[in-house]
Specification:
Elements: E1 12-15, H1 19-30, E2 35-39, E3 50-53, E4 56-59, E5 65-66, H2 70-78, E6 83-84, E7 90-94, E8 100-103, E9 107-108, E10 111-112, H3 118-123, H4 126-132, H5 149-157, H6 159-174, H7 183-186, H8 190-197, H9 200-208, E11 217-220, H10 226-237, E12 241-244, E13 246-253, E14 259-267, E15 277-287, E16 290-292, H11 296-303, E17 323-329, E18 342-345, H12 350-354, E19 362-365, H13 366-369, H14 371-376, E20 381-387, H15 399-410, E21 419-426, H16 436-452, E22 456-458, H17 461-464, H18 468-483
Parallel strand pairs: 1-2, 1-16, 2-12, 7-18, 16-22
Antiparallel strand pairs: 3-4, 5-11, 6-11, 7-8, 9-10, 13-14, 14-15, 17-20, 17-21, 18-19, 19-20
Helix pairs in contact: 1-10, 1-18, 5-6, 8-9
């Protein structure tokens, strides 16, 4: 496939069309710059993606964001989208006694805001509950030096709360063992609140309230995947461009200032979960500003090409195998949401795996949780069964397995006769476990770039923090800062890079 011609200089090139890259490009476009976003896959949005099956549109990646993230809500509304709240309570499933479901207590990642919560009492043995209550009297110093979530919870509450509640909740959300999660990243402000309020329970209550006053998560009406769609529309309307099937191969300084980005086209991998192949002749693109908004390891590989930026020995451990089975079913027993919005599943022991326990890590009753599906398709139930934990034997994920395990988790006999459609999506390696050492290096990286490379920004979950509540504000602020760096934009538009570029 031949090049049409090198593109004219863009005001800024954003490498990576995930939500971080799109958000940063949108912030730049709002300030009069014409950004060029390079996305190696056929669709922008990254882990925020949707699909339509049997006339039902639904998320196949991330589906919501924390309700306290006002920056995201402001962005969603600015883009003309409405915000809706989920319906139904959340549950956690344990394998003991053939399987038992209990409600998730109000709090932070399963850390309770009250130890009198019925969900806490139901989930713990009397002995574990007694141990957990020591949190109320042991003083704020215990656990204050614990950097990872598992150590913090164990120090404050013992292993009962960790194993029965926090591990399935945190593992289901972040696809990692709590020992690999930085407590200050996944529970922002918790250790500081502990020092102020004297116990972890009181700290959570101060941060989240003693009772749910609003849902923990919210989403744009119609699905979170509407967000990258709306961002793309606004970027293009402002004169920018989102170029899909284009991969950045390298970044280098241009003499006299600015940057060269070497790029080529890509071809889809037969396995959609794998990165696409590079193909064709490369093009060298000039820009006064550049944003690296790729996943972690590709981003570090690009940074390693730059003198003055030290990323030696900084390697990212890939996340575990992640897969979702989405089921569209018709069964009247699902109408009332027997497990509310869904459940997270406790990590099984080797013995439980050997005995044939449920291997899913979570189940989402998507159509009960989000009202737009029932509004438009009242007789269709969308259920998502999620698989993949780091350190566990890989599971053979199929629609058949998803249907059988959904039946066990929901306590409803779902058979192939109830199945209208089924769909498997894989996100293998997409959520790497990032511990305290990683975040210390990220802080140093941002400081280095601010001083030595003011026209280069790095965005994304690995550079901002876990979750959209960290990714989107950092991308917005990076775009605002970058817009004031470099030459004054000329207000031009970005033209096609390659002769046959998939849009």
């Amino acid at each position: 496939m031949a090049l049409s011609h090198p593109t004219p200089a863009a005001d800024v090139i954003v490498i990576g069309g995930g939500l971080a890259g799109l958000t940063c490009a949108y912030a730049l476009a709002k300030r009069g710059l014409a950004p060029l976003v390079l996305e190696e896959r056929g669709k922008a949005g990254g882990l925020v993606a949707g699909i339509a099956r049997d006339d039902v549109a639904f998320d196949i990646g991330a589906e919501s964001y924390v309700s306290t993230a006002e920056d995201i809500t402001d962005l969603v509304r600015e883009l003309g989208l409405d915000v809706v709240e989920p319906q139904g309570s959340s549950w956690v499933y344990g394998h003991e006694g053939g399987g038992r479901a209990t409600r998730i207590p109000h709090g932070m990642l399963g850390i309770p805001a009250s130890l009198d919560d019925e969900a806490v009492v139901a989930a713990l043995s009397p002995r574990d509950l007694e141990r957990a209550r020591l949190d109320l009297t042991m003083g704020p110093q215990v656990g204050s030096d614990c950097d990872d979530l598992a150590s913090f919870v164990t120090a404050r509450y013992g292993t009962g709360v960790l194993d029965a509640i926090v591990a399935p909740v945190a593992g289901g959300i972040h696809s990692a063992d709590p020992s690999a999660l930085a407590v200050d990243t996944v529970c922002r402000g918790l250790r500081a609140a502990l020092a102020e309020h004297g116990s972890a329970t009181a700290a959570v209550a101060a941060l989240r309230g003693t009772r749910p006053s609003r849902p923990a998560v919210i989403a744009p009406d119609g699905g979170l995947f509407r967000l990258p769609q709306a961002l793309t529309e606004q970027i293009c309307a402002a004169g920018g461009r989102v170029a899909t099937r284009v991969r950045a191969l390298g970044v280098s300084h241009a003499s006299g200032g600015g940057w060269f980005v070497t790029a080529c086209q890509t071809h889809p991998h037969p396995d959609p979960s794998q990165p696409p192949y590079s193909e064709g002749l490369p093009a060298q693109l000039y820009t006064p500003r550049v944003v690296i908004a790729t996943p972690a390891q590709p981003g570090l590989d690009l940074l390693s090409m730059l003198s003055g930026v030290d990323v030696r020995g900084w390697r990212i451990t890939p996340g575990g195998p992640i897969a979702h089975v989405t089921l569209i079913v018709d069964h009247p027993a699902l109408d009332e949401g027997p497990r509310g919005s869904g459940m997270l599943v406790r990590r099984p022991t080797p013995a439980e795996i050997e005995a044939g326990c449920v291997r899913a890590k979570a189940l989402t009753h998507y159509s009960y949780k989000w009202p737009w599906v029932r509004r438009d398709h009242p007789n269709r139930h969308v259920i998502r069964v999620s698989y993949g934990r780091a350190g566990e034997p890989e599971v053979d994920v199929t629609v058949e397995r998803g249907l059988e395990e959904a039946s066990r988790l929901l306590g409803i006999d779902l058979t192939p006769d109830h199945l209208i459609d089924g769909y498997v999506v894989r996100w293998d390696g997409a959520l790497p476990p990032l511990g305290p050492e990683h975040w210390a290096r990220v802080e140093d990286l941002h400081e280095t770039l601010a001083h030595s490379e003011p026209t280069l920004k790095v965005c994304g979950a690995w550079a901002a923090g876990s979750g959209l509540s960290a990714v989107i504000p950092q991308a917005l602020s990076s775009g605002a800062a970058l817009a004031s760096a470099g030459p004054t934009p000329q207000g031009g538009s970005v033209t096609t890079i390659f002769a046959q570029e998939e849009r």
